[in-house]
Specification:
The protein has 140 residues and is mainly α. It has helices at residues 5-15, 20-27, 31-38, 46-56, 60-64, 86-91, 99-112, 114-121, 126-135.
Protein backbone atom coordinates (compact mmCIF):
# COMPACT_ATOMS: atom_id res chain seq x y z
CA UNK A 1 0.00 0.00 0.00
CA UNK A 2 1.35 3.38 -0.96
CA UNK A 3 1.02 6.90 0.27
CA UNK A 4 -0.25 9.91 -1.70
CA UNK A 5 1.87 13.04 -1.73
CA UNK A 6 -0.22 14.93 0.83
CA UNK A 7 0.19 12.13 3.36
CA UNK A 8 3.93 11.92 2.67
CA UNK A 9 4.24 15.62 3.45
CA UNK A 10 2.20 15.31 6.64
CA UNK A 11 4.15 12.29 7.87
CA UNK A 12 7.56 13.83 7.18
CA UNK A 13 6.55 17.06 8.90
CA UNK A 14 5.63 15.06 12.00
CA UNK A 15 8.61 12.70 11.91
CA UNK A 16 11.13 15.47 11.47
CA UNK A 17 9.29 17.85 13.79
CA UNK A 18 9.19 20.55 11.12
CA UNK A 19 6.85 23.51 11.40
CA UNK A 20 4.04 23.84 8.84
CA UNK A 21 4.53 27.60 8.67
CA UNK A 22 8.19 27.12 7.77
CA UNK A 23 7.20 24.71 5.01
CA UNK A 24 4.53 27.07 3.64
CA UNK A 25 7.02 29.96 3.64
CA UNK A 26 9.66 27.82 1.94
CA UNK A 27 7.15 26.74 -0.71
CA UNK A 28 6.02 30.33 -1.30
CA UNK A 29 2.40 29.56 -0.44
CA UNK A 30 0.02 30.58 2.32
CA UNK A 31 -0.71 28.47 5.36
CA UNK A 32 -4.22 27.93 3.97
CA UNK A 33 -2.82 26.71 0.65
CA UNK A 34 -0.61 24.23 2.54
CA UNK A 35 -3.60 23.10 4.59
CA UNK A 36 -5.57 22.52 1.37
CA UNK A 37 -2.68 20.44 -0.02
CA UNK A 38 -2.42 18.41 3.18
CA UNK A 39 -6.17 17.74 3.14
CA UNK A 40 -6.00 16.65 -0.52
CA UNK A 41 -8.21 19.52 -1.68
CA UNK A 42 -5.47 21.14 -3.77
CA UNK A 43 -3.09 19.38 -6.14
CA UNK A 44 0.65 19.89 -5.87
CA UNK A 45 1.93 21.85 -8.86
CA UNK A 46 5.47 21.84 -10.25
CA UNK A 47 6.54 24.88 -8.21
CA UNK A 48 5.43 23.22 -4.97
CA UNK A 49 7.11 19.98 -6.02
CA UNK A 50 10.37 21.89 -6.50
CA UNK A 51 9.94 23.35 -3.04
CA UNK A 52 9.34 19.93 -1.50
CA UNK A 53 12.55 18.66 -3.09
CA UNK A 54 14.49 21.59 -1.59
CA UNK A 55 12.79 21.61 1.82
CA UNK A 56 12.92 17.90 2.59
CA UNK A 57 15.99 17.03 0.50
CA UNK A 58 14.14 14.22 -1.29
CA UNK A 59 14.08 13.74 -5.06
CA UNK A 60 10.96 14.49 -7.08
CA UNK A 61 10.41 10.88 -8.12
CA UNK A 62 9.80 9.94 -4.48
CA UNK A 63 7.05 12.54 -4.18
CA UNK A 64 5.21 11.56 -7.37
CA UNK A 65 5.27 7.80 -6.76
CA UNK A 66 2.15 7.06 -4.70
CA UNK A 67 3.17 3.40 -4.58
CA UNK A 68 6.00 4.15 -2.18
CA UNK A 69 5.61 4.59 1.56
CA UNK A 70 8.80 5.91 3.06
CA UNK A 71 11.86 7.49 1.50
CA UNK A 72 15.01 5.41 1.15
CA UNK A 73 18.62 6.60 1.07
CA UNK A 74 18.34 6.51 -2.73
CA UNK A 75 15.67 9.21 -2.53
CA UNK A 76 18.04 11.80 -1.10
CA UNK A 77 18.48 14.70 -3.48
CA UNK A 78 22.04 15.03 -4.65
CA UNK A 79 23.47 18.27 -5.95
CA UNK A 80 23.09 18.65 -9.68
CA UNK A 81 26.51 18.67 -11.30
CA UNK A 82 27.42 21.65 -13.43
CA UNK A 83 26.31 21.29 -17.02
CA UNK A 84 23.63 18.70 -16.16
CA UNK A 85 20.32 19.28 -17.89
CA UNK A 86 19.38 22.80 -16.88
CA UNK A 87 15.74 22.11 -17.65
CA UNK A 88 15.61 19.32 -15.07
CA UNK A 89 17.13 21.60 -12.49
CA UNK A 90 14.49 24.25 -13.24
CA UNK A 91 11.77 21.68 -12.56
CA UNK A 92 13.48 20.46 -9.40
CA UNK A 93 14.07 17.03 -10.88
CA UNK A 94 17.61 16.45 -9.75
CA UNK A 95 19.63 13.82 -11.54
CA UNK A 96 20.56 10.73 -9.54
CA UNK A 97 23.70 8.77 -10.39
CA UNK A 98 21.78 6.55 -12.81
CA UNK A 99 20.29 9.38 -14.86
CA UNK A 100 18.98 7.14 -17.65
CA UNK A 101 16.81 5.14 -15.29
CA UNK A 102 15.45 8.28 -13.65
CA UNK A 103 14.35 9.90 -16.89
CA UNK A 104 12.76 6.63 -17.97
CA UNK A 105 10.86 6.46 -14.67
CA UNK A 106 9.56 10.00 -15.06
CA UNK A 107 8.53 9.42 -18.66
CA UNK A 108 6.92 6.07 -17.85
CA UNK A 109 5.04 7.51 -14.91
CA UNK A 110 3.58 10.33 -16.97
CA UNK A 111 2.86 8.01 -19.89
CA UNK A 112 1.18 5.37 -17.70
CA UNK A 113 -0.59 7.72 -15.28
CA UNK A 114 -1.52 10.89 -17.20
CA UNK A 115 -4.71 11.49 -15.22
CA UNK A 116 -2.97 11.01 -11.88
CA UNK A 117 -0.18 13.37 -12.97
CA UNK A 118 -2.73 15.98 -14.03
CA UNK A 119 -4.62 15.59 -10.75
CA UNK A 120 -1.46 16.01 -8.68
CA UNK A 121 0.36 18.64 -10.73
CA UNK A 122 -2.03 20.02 -13.33
CA UNK A 123 -1.71 19.61 -17.08
CA UNK A 124 1.75 19.72 -18.60
CA UNK A 125 2.71 23.02 -20.16
CA UNK A 126 4.18 23.22 -23.64
CA UNK A 127 7.60 23.89 -22.09
CA UNK A 128 7.31 20.78 -19.89
CA UNK A 129 6.23 18.65 -22.85
CA UNK A 130 9.23 19.88 -24.84
CA UNK A 131 11.48 19.12 -21.88
CA UNK A 132 10.14 15.59 -21.61
CA UNK A 133 10.53 15.03 -25.35
CA UNK A 134 14.17 16.05 -25.00
CA UNK A 135 14.82 13.49 -22.27
CA UNK A 136 14.59 10.42 -24.42
CA UNK A 137 13.59 8.77 -27.65
CA UNK A 138 9.87 8.44 -26.95
CA UNK A 139 7.36 11.14 -26.19
CA UNK A 140 5.52 10.65 -22.89
Amino acid sequence: MGRPINRKIERLLQERDFDRNDLAKSLGITGQNLQDILKGRTAVNVQVLKGLVRFFGLRADYWVDDGREDPTPGDLAEPVEEGTRENLERLGLEMPRESGSFKEKVQAFIRNHPEEWATQFGPLTREELELLEGLGEEKP
